[in-house]
Design goal:
The chain has 80 residues and is mainly alpha-helical. Helices cover 71% and strands 0% of the residues.
Length: 80
């Protein structure tokens, strides 16, 4: 129980300390999932939150790159 409260406090303080930008996109949701998974897997909530943040950020970056690649792809040239 202490781990969950500590994790919630760290997330709240960390989120409040960050400027409102997309620098850490995916980190908060990944940290929440990782914290719960780490807590269930042997009371390692903080370690799970850190790993979840890294994975969430990585997945968000990967998704943004894929979206950028599809929107910036040039249409095929037509020959006359």
């Amino acid at each position: 129980m202490k781990t969950i409260v500590a994790l919630a406090a760290v997330l709240a303080l960390g989120t409040a300390a960050l400027p409102m930008s997309a620098q850490a996109a995916g980190c908060a949701s990944g940290a929440a999932v990782g914290g719960v998974a780490g807590h269930m897997a042997g009371h390692h909530g903080v370690l799970g939150a850190a790993a979840g943040c890294a994975v969430g950020h990585h997945e968000n970056t990967k998704q943004k790159r894929a979206a950028a690649a599809t929107t910036t792809a040039a249409p095929p040239a037509t020959q006359q």
